[in-house]
Write a structure and sequence with these properties.
- By secondary structure, this protein is α/β, with parallel strands linked by helices.
- The chain has eleven helices and twelve strands.
- GO terms for molecular function: endonuclease activity.
Length: about 325
């Protein structure tokens, strides 16, 4: 089944025998075998029984808490894996050429996937003016291999991302929605609301994969370490942002699966979030995307995006442990 999303406000998460149960308003709304669950995301307020906490930790099932706006609140995390050798290699790479190579890989994957997405849209619709942005992405990609300063590499990533979002509105083929600029904490328009929510869901999935492989999720290379920030999970997220979240956001709008009345605005903060009905639609689309298959360019076989999160984590571990010559980011045409 993959990830279970709990959207009902003030839900109670309990268990009966080997099944997870969720109740709200004195009614049972979910009843799922625990063996089918890979992760749980609770959006809004939820109460978790002590029996469920114990069961999730024993089964190594992560539970993340998000606001309905997509803001990440916290996470119940199983014990770190016993593979100390992966974490040792992760720490030893700090300040070395390996860290620089990894940062290049994360940025190259993200910007190439941005570029490929725009090239596809440019071929599909000649009326769009995407070539200037594609050129700017190429200008950010070209110096990557010659640059050995992580701060400079971060600057290239920032320039490429800014160029991409400057043309993001052209990718929205639904006159009921528009995008001006990326904003968050909180998002103040429907498109940013979807992006923020999608990135929070992706963070849950990537952090789970990072933990399964055996990494310390808080020690990254591209993202500057801060207290409580899972920097490595955020690093590995980069190449997946356009492949998963941006693709789902654009599909939900362009295929008119989400309508303006599926969004609501909080009066004081002006934070925009999905209604319960809209949230269920978006979560279904996100889960469908994660379970969709593609041919992995390195492994040469079919896999789901859900599986590729862990695959990329294991490819990173192999590089840091000197079992391969480079980290290959996931780039899809």
């Amino acid at each position: 089944m993959g990830t279970v999303y709990i959207t009902q406000e003030d839900a109670f998460i309990g268990k009966t025998d080997e099944r997870l149960t969720v109740k709200a308003d004195k009614k049972q709304i979910l009843d799922i075998p625990l063996m089918k669950i890979e992760g749980i995301v609770a959006l809004g307020r939820a109460t978790v029984s002590p029996a469920v906490v114990t069961e999730l930790l024993e089964r190594k099932i992560p539970l993340s808490f998000l606001k309905v706006t997509g803001k990440y609140l916290g996470r119940l995390e199983p014990e770190m894996t016993k593979n100390i050798f992966v974490r040792k290699a992760q720490w030893e790479a700090i300040g070395t050429d390996k860290a620089i190579q990894v940062v290049r890989g994360f940025i190259r994957g993200k910007l190439k996937n941005y570029k490929n997405a725009l090239l596809r849209r440019d071929r599909q619709n000649a009326d769009l003016d995407l070539k200037p942005t594609i050129q700017k992405l190429e200008q950010a990609l070209n110096p990557l291999s010659k640059n050995d300063q992580i701060d400079s590499l971060r600057g290239l990533e920032g320039a490429g991302s800014a160029a991409y979002f400057n043309c993001f509105n052209q990718l929205i083929q639904n006159p009921q929605f528009s995008f001006k600029t990326r904003n968050r904490r909180p998002p103040t328009d429907p498109v940013n609301s979807l992006l923020s929510l999608g990135y929070s869901l992706l963070r849950h999935d990537i952090q789970s994969a990072v933990n399964i492989v055996g990494f310390d999720p808080y020690l990254g290379y591209l993202h500057v370490p801060h207290y409580g920030r899972p920097a490595l999970a955020l690093d590995l997220m980069e190449e997946f942002r356009p492949l998963v979240v941006d693709a789902v956001v654009l599909a939900s709008l362009n295929q008119q699966k989400l309508k303006p009345d599926y969004f609501t605005t909080e009066p004081l903060s002006e934070a925009v979030s999905l209604t319960l009905e809209g949230l269920k639609i978006f979560l279904r689309l996100y889960e469908e995307k994660k379970q969709s298959k593609f041919k992995h360019p390195v492994l040469g076989r079919q896999c789901t995006y859900q599986e590729s999160f862990e695959i990329q984590g294991r490819l990173l571990a192999k590089y840091l442990m000197a079992e391969t010559e480079q980290y290959p980011p996931l780039v899809l045409k």
